[in-house]
Amino acid sequence: MSPESVVDPSGEAVLPGALPEALRAELVAFRRDLHMHPELGNQEFRTTAAIKARLEQAGLKPRVLAVGTGLVCDIGTEGGEWDGGAASMLALRADIDALPIPDTKSECAYRSTVPGRAHACGHDVHTTVVLGAGLVLAALHERGLLPRPVRLIFQPAEEVLPGGAADGIECGVLDGVGRIIAVHCDPRVDAGHIGLRKGPITSACDRLEIALDGPGGHTARPHLTTDLVIAAARVATEVPSLVARRMDARSAVSVTWGRIESGHAPNVIPQHAELSGTVRCLDLDAWRRAPDVVHAAIDEIAALYRAKTEINYVRGVPPVVNDPVITELLRDAMVARRGTHSVEDTEQSLGGEDFSWYLEHVPGAMARLGVRTPGERTVRDLHQGDFDADEYAITVGVELFTAAALIDGAH
Length: 411
Known about the structure:
The chain is α+β, with helices and mostly antiparallel strands. The chain folds into two domains: about 5-200 and about 320-410, 3-Layer(aba) Sandwich (Aminopeptidase); about 205-315, Alpha-Beta Plaits (2-Layer Sandwich). It has helices at about 20-35, 45-55, 125-140, 165-170, 230-245, 285-305, 325-340, 355-360, 390-410, and strands at about 5, 15, 65, 70-75, 80, 85, 90-95, 150-155, 175-190, 195, 200, 205-215, 215-220, 255-260, 270, 270-280, 310-315, 320, 345, 365-370. The strands form six sheets. An eight-stranded mixed β-sheet has the order 3-4-8-7-9-20-10-19, with helices on both faces. Helix 1 (about 20-35) runs antiparallel to helix 3, helix 3 crosses helix 9 and helix 7 (about 325-340) crosses helix 9 (about 390-410). The longest helix is centred in the N-terminal third of the chain and has 20 residues, at about 125-140.
């Protein structure tokens, strides 16, 4: 498909996939509004309404998901047919929820206005990128320049295990979809660049909750009790290494605790103890085996202290495994827009992402979207209260997605 010029409503000539300056400014303002009003998973009513209103303003027909938040919107599917055949759409996915942590940015005009809530993972950027791509693609479709239909998916509750993707799939967001792509903010990559990896790019992540019970008593007579403090300590220290020894080391299975709680007095051995944490691994087969191995390790250690166990192993998400062909589609799209220097290889992380559930049904790929200001030396990370993004990344993400839709449709 030749990159012929089109004219946006302001009269400015642009190449397909490029952003007019007025739209860039609008998208930055939209992202800042989301950043100031973060909403937790399955509570994203304001966010959903804002996205819906802007898509409808562009003449599109978004549909709110049956769960009450999130939405899906098709571009170029009038009558359900395209070029005389059933459409096999490319889907662009964004996640729209925030995190239950405070925004600690001290000098920021658009910091969160909601106590204890922040867009500290960049979902406001993801949402704005997909919205912007949708607006550009809708304008191209009006001019007959969109070669194949595209679906926009604005998914709620990514941060809530097992993730809102499963609800979206049940609501039919993948019906008619043949491929799916997404981005995730990466504060280790400069704005203007993306990171790509074929195969696994994230890890599996499950939640683990354990209750230990037994007769308590006086600390002067621990031999008459089930010493649950010691039992909980041994579970906390020995289960991670025992699980690691029973799994292939290359799968990097990691049991990590975030909470341990037991007792209320220094001279009373308690009757109840609780631990909770996560199980992460890099390999899909290891993820499928992990629950049985973890259960066995916990029971073995607890049995040494005659502690009764109640284990709640909550399946979270499998690894995101990027399809090689669609990863190359993202590479081709980025190179077409910004040159070979704009793409870098990236490592597999131990973070979890429910985008993986879509990939259980259709091939797809996720790119790491650089959000670090070039030259910045401050080391930032996701899920931190001071997280922010260089907003130039919005332009880059929109161009990546629109170019991917044009290249994909031309083949």
